[in-house]
Amino acid sequence: MKYHLLGRSGLRVSEISLGTMTFGEEWGWGASREESKRQFDLFAERGGNFIDTANRYTEGTSEKLVGEFIKSDREKFVLATKYTLSMRKGDVSFSGNSRKNMVQSLEASLKRLDTDYVDLYWLHAWDFTTQVDEVMRSLDDMVSAGKVLYIGISDTPAWIVSMANTLADFRGWSAFAALQIEYSLLQRTPERDLLPMAKALDLAVTPWGALGGGALTGKYSRANNSTDVKGRVAPESARRSERAMKIAAVVDQIADEIGKKSSQVALNWVRQRNQVTVPIIGARTAEQLGESLDCVGFELTPEQMERLDQVSEIELGFPHDFLMNKPISDLVYSGLGHRIHNHRR
Predict the structure, then answer these.
(1) Biggest distance spanned by C-alpha atoms of the chain
(2) Which residues touch 140 (CB under 8 Å, ≥6 apart)?
(3) Do residues 224 and 197 touch, judged by C-beta distance below 8 A?
(4) pLDDT tens digits, residue range 262-298?
(5) In the listed set 127, 153, 180, which residue is the last one of a domain according to the structure?
(6) Could you give the count of Cα atoms lying within 13 Å of 247 in the half-sphere of its Cβ?
(7) How many structural domains is the chain composed of?
């Protein structure tokens, strides 16, 4: 396992993060305590140190199990958890990005995790009601109190993240070091604004959903495109669409050509993309996790990456497509764009 710096920070994190949304069975699926421990032990044995959980995962059980598993060697692990999502249905004080919910959520998480601090505290999703300055000042207070070491933001528009870090830098507050987003061969829209923003602001990118909800594992594409391995009809969705199946077919082809698993090919496409720092990988069994972790043992060739890029290509939309149009580009660069080396791109 190799390690990366987390964005603009000096924090060292493993090149794979263990996602623990499956730790616990309260949601009707997931892993038992024993199976969760097997996953954790395997990840640690492989050199993994970056653990991702959230207060809402399996109604708090995920945090409890993670806290139990890391307790004997707490300082070794980079522990990340989140706040925002509702922990008490029907009570507006127990959800959102407000200072009130942040404080009570962090205190509750620390109790469940049985620790004095978290290494990385994520804002889980933007609520469009709390002012940016309230969020950033409140997070800075948590850092100043020693309960949080670094902060990150998840599932939030690029313009809000940009505003937040600009404000934090101006005020001398703690700024976001990392960005968590959905990103995969099936979901490339972050390339429009989120990924360029992350590069400009030196944010680590930790994608979730790299396997497209299972659509890129061969589970559906290797079973006549419409039926999964247990004979069930695959549900219609963006992850089971005609486009998704075309992408999955190319993933399967490359996997067969190099003797690897489809899931490993899909993960390595994400890992090898410019801007991606650490994908978050979750599983229901240690065997599934081990298969995914084996992706670090090889890399896709430029030709294989290009095949995957082409089959999954998206329209960037305005203003990106407009600005890349040759007549417009010639006007912007006096026809010399190809001779200007731009290290920022």
Answers:
(1) 64
(2) 168, 173, 174
(3) no
(4) 999 999 999 999 888 899 999 999 999 999 999 999 9
(5) 180
(6) 30
(7) 2
Domain boundary among 180, 209, 233: 180
Amino acid letter, residue 103: V
Q: Residue 275: its pLDDT value, please?
A: 81
Q: 310: phi > 0 → left, psi -120 to 50 → alpha, else beta; which?
A: alpha
Any domain includes 302: no
Active site residues: 57
Name, in order, each residue with C-beta under 8 angstroms of 251's C-beta and a sequence gap of 6 or more.
Answer: 185, 216, 218, 221, 262, 265, 266, 269, 308
Assigned domain for 272 exists = no
Q: What is the pLDDT of residues 68-77, one digit of tens each?
A: 999 999 999 9
221 touches 246 (CB < 8 A)? no
State the Cα angle at 18 between 279 and 95, rounded to 5°. Answer: 90
Give residue 311's identity as a one-letter amino acid code: V
Grouping H, G, I as helix, E, B as strand and the rest as coil, residue 342 is coil
Is 58 inside any structural domain? yes
Query: Distance (Å, rounded) from C-alpha 61 to C-alpha 125?
Result: 20
pLDDT of residue 345: 73
Report yes or no on 86 lying in a domain: yes
For 67, the domain range is: 3-180
